[in-house]
Amino acid sequence: MQRVGKPRIRPWLSLLTIGILILAASLPATGAPPAGAPAELKVGFVDFFSGAAATFGISGKNTAEWLVDKWNKEGGIRGVKVKLVMVDEAGGPDKQVTEFRRLVLDEKVEAVVGYTSSANCLAVAPVAEELKVLTVIHICGTHRLTEDRQIKYVFRTSNSQAADSVMAARYVLAMKPNVKTIAGANEDYAWGRDSWEAFRIAIQRLKPDVKVVAELWTKIQAGEYSAEISKLLAAKPDVIHSSFWGGGLITFVKQGAPRGLLKDSLVFFSTGEQALQDLKKDMPDGVIVAPRATSGYFLHPDPDRNPLQKEFVQGLKARFDRYPDYPAHRTYQALAGLKAAFEKAIDQGGGRWPKNEDVIKAFEGLTWQTPYGLITMRPDHQVVHDGAVGLTKFNAKYGFPTLERLVAVRAAEIMPPVGMKTLDWVAALKK
Amino acid sequence: MRTLTIILLDGAVFAAVLFLISVGLTLVFGVLRILNVSHGGIYAFGAYLATFLALRLLEIGGSPYLTYLMLLVGPVIVGLIAGPLIERVFLQRVYGRAEAIQLLLTFSIFLILDDLMKLIWGTKPLFVSEPYKLLGEFSIAGIRYSWYQVLLILVSIVFGGALVWAVRGTRFGKIVVSVINDREISQAIGINVNRIFMVSFTLGAFCAALGGALVAPTIAVVPGFAVDATVLAFAVIAIGGMGSLEGAALGALIVGLLRALAVHLLPEADLVVIYLAMILVLVARPQGLFGQVELRRI
């Protein structure tokens, strides 16, 4: 006869209970999604994924994917997962307007984040207002976006282009107080023209005896700068300002550095930080570079003292084998702002999923956390923040130049106050 | 005098680059009578492959001087693969068809090549500096120049001379000229016209890839970098006369010098001067400076 043992249920039950508890602890504490919440929050993300500006766009896309994956693992926005719909920004303003309508009407996104090109953000903003769609501009630099018209649905989460130029003027004067002559090498379109004009006006305002000895205007992403470099070498300016970017910037440095251009003059590259990981030893020491007027830089604030910065820097490096550059930092600022606005709106609405208008109301005056620190959205839908700038110095630990003598220029010194037009402010700049 | 010396040297450097970009385009048009927009894609492929091979060589510890060899190996591979493939698979189907069809086909190939390069090498800038830096610099009129720039001028003169000799002074060249002049008669006297077309297109593809490879050490190779180069190449051969090797050389020299003049004396006109020159030449001489007026065949 088979002996049947006394059932030992209690130990198994205990084990099961412990297992469930461990499982529950490892799962994010999402709770129930807010009442009226959609199954997922669809967000359009628009940046350059092809063409020369893809060097920026891919950085933005990587950041967006990494950040949204992280949020979704943590439970999304109060239990609602975020889904990104990617759109390539290449193709010009007309195409972007069509793509924006498609995102809203066909894809039914609740918000759109992106736009690196000023031409595209200016073209899309009126359509966003017309369709009443929350649109967060992450990089586009033109001050006209927030100054030319009253905007309700469009927000910009980073400094405008003028901040880059004013920051450059202030840093150059700090580095070389006796500067007498300046020259510009910029691309012949709105970005290059605006960058140079704001720099020239700012530096001449701060030091009126500064003379311009050369103004060069090249084609966008021209592959040949021999004549421009010769002209700059012949003009021997104390300081050269350049807003070259991406492949054009790398080419200019490659052709100019061996000919001594970056040693003979003190050179400032407003987007230089973005190319350092590519240029490596080809970028000489002692060149002023900036991540535009962006507060975040992968070594500033120190990742070892700032957990959010550490997580961001290590996360991107591990997944994409590249440290976050300024498009990455600005993308983080934009997406984190959107998430914070939704969460504030949910709280203000008593836990219900917010309407579009509620999120917009929550966004105005919102303060949110970024790897750099807290930033605040002004009532004019423009964020202002500090800007980092420094001198290149090859760093053997990273295998590319990092920024030495890094200065974080205060927001109030590089951006106009609320209600003041940027050009008026630059023209009346004070030390 | 000092400024003039600098302008002449800068002009010659840019002219050399332009000649290397456009010579293959004019060669293919001369023989096949096809405006090959895919030229820009092959040019970019040459730049990508040569840079990739040079970088791999440096990674495995090869001598930096061997990078010059890679600048030749890359274009040979691209020319030998892309040339016969594009000509046999695609172009031979549109000989004698409307120009719009030929343009659309070669433009499609350009787009395919562009995407192919993105699939293989991604969107990150790719560049190798060793060939540019190894040769060092020299000073003239108080301005430092790189010897690699002088090398580009020399290579384009030697390469252009070799091509002219190949067309004028060899048996193969005479056969090509006969095909250019009359395809039907050439076929009737026993010339394998299809083979001449394939060899000529392969040579044109090699020229394009070589141009890309030699320019690559001075630039960042990024997606889309060849678009402007292609447009410039069309402007150069339109000025010089489509299908003419001498025309490509003269067109490159005119554009190179005009741009250098503009940068030094009137920077605001940097962009417009090239196309202004093209318009003026085309108004005065629609077939270009060295172009032949083609009689309509009945």
Task: Write a concise synopsis of the structure shown.
The complex is a heterodimer of chains A (431) and B (298). With 431 residues, chain A is of the alpha/beta class.
Please describe what this structure looks like.
- The complex is a heterodimer of chains A (431) and B (298).
- By secondary structure, chain A is α/β, with parallel strands linked by helices.
- Chain A contains 16 helices and 14 strands.
- Chain A has helices at 9-26, 54-73, 93-105, 118-131, 144-147, 161-175, 190-206, 226-235, 246-256, 261-264, 276-279, 307-320, 326-348, 356-363, 411-414, 422-427; strands at 40-47, 81-88, 111-114, 134-137, 154-156, 181-187, 211-218, 239-242, 266-269, 288-289, 367-369, 374-376, 387-395, 400-409.
- Chain A is globular, with a radius of gyration of 25 Å.
- The termini of chain A are far apart.
- The model of chain A is unreliable at 1-7 and 24-30 (pLDDT under 50).
- Helix content of chain B is 72%, strand content 3%.
- In chain B, a hairpin with a 2-residue loop joins strand 1 (137-140) and strand 2 (143-146).
- The model of chain B has no long low-confidence stretch (mean pLDDT 92).
- In chain B, helix 1 packs parallel to helix 6.
- Chain A binds chain B through residues 49-52, 54-55, 58, 188, 214-219, 221-224, 226-228, 230-231, 233-234, 246-248, 250-251, 254-255, 258-260, 275, 278, 282, and chain B through 2-3, 6-7, 9-11, 13-14, 17, 118, 123-125, 127, 129, 132-133, 137, 142-146, 149, 215, 218-225, 228-229, 259-260, 263-264, 267-268, 270-271.
